From TrEMBL, chains A, B, C, D:
Transmembrane segments: none annotated. It catalyses: a quinone + sn-glycerol 3-phosphate = dihydroxyacetone phosphate + a quinol; glycine + O2 + H2O = glyoxylate + H2O2 + NH4(+). Keywords: FAD, Flavoprotein, Oxidoreductase, Thiamine biosynthesis. NCBIfam families: thiamin_ThiO. GO terms for molecular function: flavin adenine dinucleotide binding; glycerol-3-phosphate dehydrogenase (quinone) activity; glycine oxidase activity. It holds the Pfam family DAO. The lineage of its organism: Bacteria, Bacillati, Bacillota, Bacilli, Bacillales. It comes from Anoxybacillus pushchinoensis. It comes from the Bacteria. Belongs to the FAD-dependent glycerol-3-phosphate dehydrogenase family. This is Aerobic glycerol-3-phosphate dehydrogenase. One of its GO terms (cellular component) is cytoplasm. Its EC number is 1.1.5.3, 1.4.3.19. The keyword Transmembrane helix does not apply.
Length: 373, 373, 373, 373
């Protein structure tokens, strides 16, 4: 086999799909079901604009990834017939306090310079016309933001990879590496040793524990994110609404709305806290008061990989040239999945990556570009 | 057959059990699964003191029913081996506002006169010692209050009735009556007509629609009650805590806590509203702040039968002497199930009921005894 | 209001959609959730050919309904954005015994005369090439058969009707009619009386109990159908496979396969029998042996309305000209939903229906056209 | 801390309970929820006789463990109030083929010599009287066999340990050891490094991958076991029925029956195969034909740790005297949990274990005592 990927989440599956398309012989090992961690828990926004209000090394990748999606979605649906729930109705950003007002304007001003054609300032009347249930004095509309069902997208990458010849082994846990004369030649798994020329580690928040076995210290920590879902009798929102207080409401099919997300650092405890349900409901009802009468459907959590400087790790191991690590996408894993699959595939093939990847290198000094939320 | 009971909830099942014990040939028709409505949704308090702060016709029945439970539970467990989750750790009533303070004291004073041996005033220190996670300045402890798993109790009544010879027909819907010369001789159901000498209608909130077919107008309406459940790593409560603001927290096995309940009048819509989840969490966290960190498990709703004067309907039909109606127990259906089974059985057998049942008659004038909450 | 529809299943929802499109003011009452009975339990085949091997009055409606679907699906998706899971990969009919061989050929010969362009006989080699996992000596391919997610289609009809102005009232149970001088002017429901000019009764297997209240005796009975679902790692089937032994296997998204269906007459008991799970698995593994290694996902049941002569009831009440009854579609409710919506709307509007509806009249003599299975 | 236990299943929890009772400071790390693997999947038989027809080193432990349960259950219920579902109605072993007849008699003869007071041969008439729904020509009744709800027992051990001062850390994954000068001083986990004087590895089927990190090669493999559950309207069985064909039917509360179990070697794939559901139903219906009409509830799988010689590993690491390994209980983990907790606690405390533990040593030569099934 050419490439072994550890981790069957959206990043591992996207890399597998891209490599399989390029002709590689790919195997993915996943210790449980596919897409069971952060990949399934995400609300599925493909919002290239959400996270950035100033220049940031991730912006080129975010924009590139966003622009890839329409064609990738079509390709995945063609190959797998999976319902990915994609749409491109855009994202309405709003503010709920004076402090947030300031940040919203900064955000708007920043993006107006970069993508004037895709961002639009809305007055209260304009908001009322477009999204009559949203309580806000004004808003900024990012017209090209898209969204998906994150779990279905992740499964679609996996099944499309399978359609292209990749092999996925669920319930197969990697627990150590096999060395031969200072080189890594394979991985020990609960199904036995699997040998591979190249290895990609894409285990989300669990990645640092693998990296440690290879003398690589990643400055990372888990951040639990909790979401709730409600349904309504009539459609309350067209676009995703993202308040600067951190609360977002993402409209899905069948009048279902996903409301996210908390951020509990340093927690692998995949349960939902009572206070998070309370707080998410409080925030969402402040933005869309009509939500008070929505039907509560449930709540869930996912464990997202965050890094100390807010930048993902995407790169080659400093000693073991055939080992690649890709993790740390935090809240941007769904958005960045498409471009990450391509960049990692370039690296694995030894091609030049068409982006500056030095900010994401595994051995970087901690950077100054922490994300603003 | 001697007796046909319409309704497989806790009231119908309790009546079936008692009648079967007395030798009657009993059939129960239930349109869905047994105990699927209010009987399953209840938090399961057997709190004879909860609802009353002044003299009330239900008090004798409530106290009698409560005192029956220890022996009935033993009998049901013996017959069915169902885990009913019974315990008698008592109920702590507390206040969260000045207005509630006043009501709490009235409540305490009322019960101290009636049952001085079972009620105790607790200072902040005493509460802190008994229930250290509860935030309150003082409380009143009702030491003989009990609780059960309401659904399991309801199923235990049904299976104990079966053990005594009764027949339960789930997925069998009654939709009309069969008359013979001005007498009712049977019931049309989706399994065909069932003939019976006597008929008991115990359909909870759906009872008035049957009663109407018999020219009986019951002054009733449905009240949706919503509950949530959380679990905690350590045990936070020993006793049930019932705040005068209407919020109660009932500790169950495995560190599970049931928090109830909302009261939405005139709703058969068995879904959970977002605002109710928010409000129940808010109230519960005010009483036990540690609940903020509990694991949220889920939410559900039940439709409870309330009457205009707050009194159940338990009695014989004014025209059709072989038809009995029993409904309207609102929040007291679990508590009153034991005594209701006995009283209705007495009526069916033509015996004298050892309580004054006139306040519950089907033809009463609307009374003045509305329940205080 | 113009029209009140009793029943929020696929038939009631389709009628509501069509009437709302034509400008009527429509209300639908449903006693529980929408699409909760047979409409959700169906495997979702739109197989106009499945049920008929000889001339039959339903064939024109079945073919017309099938041909309507591609455009209706597009319309529903446009209006509701619901994922209906529609595809038109066709249906492969096979035989598993000599007796079935004979029936399969009769079936093929019958359809070859009617739709030679849409049916094709396949040799073992041809089957092996198209559906390599199917064990059969030959088969008949019905190339235009389609399939959907039945529950999603039903919800899409409902939400599209809402988009066109209809009102749906879930948890609202109709229990009697309101008469005014020998005319029916409304319906009593658990939300109060609803007045309407015209009333459509579309309650599936529960319809005869309503009809009885209007002195209409329908010769009907419930037939429980049970299904199971499995998932596989790779795609085993492209087309739906329907064996003449009554077992069908319907491929859904994400390598999910729905296997149906049992037929237990006279049962409203919506649970799944152990022997049905056993028998469905046995039959399916005989057709596709590889299914032995599929992951078992679950089982469910639905209660379908069957009539004594196998013909639906679609028509006007003989006495109450403003009351229409539509039920008895048995295994063809999903397929016939589209055309039924149109025909009933024509009747309600007093227009001529472009099909011979006399075989479906409410007062017909029992016919000779029982369906062959 | 004194002792760190890796693994929050029934074995780790039982050891934690016993050590905490003896005064040790105990922490248990579990990578997911407690009792989520084999401990929850088991049918819960405490059948000391099930597995042995000849002398076997496990028999003394099995009998000792079984005799401990009545008092341990009482202790756990007292400490935790968890419903463990214990009863001691015994086990009826039967044969379904001639070959099984021979084995059943051997089994009976073996146990009649050892425990004549607890085993009884039953004629067809006697079986018919005791278990009228069981189809068999004769049977052997093991009157002291007991059963529990395996998951609840596992949680009760954990919560009783907590009541005695132990600390349980769910969602905390151990992934490596910390060495200090050739000694193991702690464990790296996803919550950081935890130091401990002594370490117990009790990870069920996942144990060999930890052992490997300590140069310990355990001859083990996973065996997937699948079960199904059904419910019946009336009680079909009093005792557990265990056929020599490997199928057992365990009666639980509320007329629920657990039917087990398949045995798929070398599989960590925690899904249920379609063919297993089919086969379990077929076997169970052969033993109790009435089960055909039971309601199918669902199916699940667990991954059990089996060893090459069928003997558990319970012992001290040959090099690291402060590390203990306990695994490999295969189908006897629930039964052996009580005695294992005591034996391992003795080892940890440096006391003599009152059984011959050499057959279970970590460095034994593969033995000759493979279990007969």
């Amino acid at each position: 086999m050419d490439v072994l990927i550890i981790g069957g989440g959206i990043i591992g599956s996207s890399v597998a799909f891209e490599l399989a398309k390029r002709g590689a012989s790919v195997t993915v090992v996943e210790r449980g079901e596919l897409a069971q961690e952060a990949s399934s828990a995400a609300a599925g926004m493909l919002g290239a604009h959400s996270e950035f209000s100033t220049d940031h090394p991730l912006i080129p990748l975010a924009l590139a990834s966003q622009s890839l999606f329409p064609s990738i979605i079509a390709e995945l649906v063609e190959l797998t017939n999976i319902n990915i729930g994609w749409n491109d109705v855009g994202m309405l950003k709003i503010a709920t306090t004076n402090e947030e007002d300031r940040k919203l304007m900064e955000h708007y001003e920043f993006w107006r310079r970069i993508q004037p054609q895709h961002v639009r300032w809305l007055t209260a009347e304009e908001v009322a016309q477009m999204e009559p249930y949203v309580q806000t004095d004004y808003g900024a509309m990012y017209t090209i933001d898209q969204q998906v069902d994150a779990r279905q997208l992740s499964l679609a990458f996996a099944h499309a990879a399978i359609a292209k010849g990749a092999r996925f082994l669920p319930y197969t846990e990697a627990y150590d590496f096999v060395f031969d004369d200072e080189r890594i030649v394979g991985v020990k798994t609960t199904r036995g040793t699997i040998y591979a020329k190249q290895i990609v580690i894409a285990c989300g928040a669990w990645t640092p524990f693998f990296a440690e076995k290879l003398q690589l210290s990643l400055h990372m920590y888990p951040v639990k994110g909790e979401c709730i879902a409600v349904t309504t009798e009539k459609r309350l929102l067209r676009a995703t609404v993202f308040a600067k207080n951190g609360c977002y409401i993402v409209p899905k099919a069948n009048n279902r709305l996903v409301i996210g997300a908390s951020a509990l650092v340093h927690s692998f405890h995949k349960t939902v806290q009572a206070c998070s349900v309370h707080e998410l409901l409080a925030r969402a009802m402040r933005i869309v008061p009509e939500l008070a009468f929505a039907t509560f459907e449930g709540a869930w959590a996912g464990i997202r990989p965050q890094t100390k400087d807010g930048m993902p790790y995407i790169g080659e191991h400093p000693q073991y040239a055939n080992v690649f690590v890709v993790t740390g996408h935090y809240r941007n894993g769904i958005l960045l999945s498409a471009i990450t699959g391509r960049c990692v595939s370039d690296m694995v093939e030894g091609k030049e990556v068409p982006f500056d990847m030095t900010p994401f290198s595994l051995t970087r000094k901690e950077g100054k570009h922490a994300l603003h939320h």
